[in-house]
Amino acid sequence: MSHVLVKHIGMLATPQGTSAKKGAEQGKIQILKDAWVLIEDGMISKIGTGEAPAVTCDVVDAEGKLVTPGLVDAHTHLIFGGWRQNELGMKLHGKTYLEIQNAGGGIQSTTNATRQATEEELTQKAAKALDEMMGFGTTTVEAKSGYGLATEHELKALQVIQNLNDRHPMDIVATFMGAHLVPAEYKQNRGEYIRLVCEEMIPLVQKQGIAKYCDVFCEADTFTVEESRQVLEAGLKHGLRPKIHADEIEAIGGSQLAGELGAISAEHLIVCPPEGIESLAKGGVIACLLPATSFNLGAVFAPARDMVNAGVPVAMATDFNPGSCPCLNMQFVINLGCLKYKLTPEEVLTAVTLNGAAAIDCAHKVGSVEVGKQGDLVIWDAPDLDYICYRVGSNLVKSVIKGGKLV
Ligand code: NIG
Ligand code: FE
Question: In terms of pTM, does the model score above 0.70?
Answer without folding.
Answer: yes
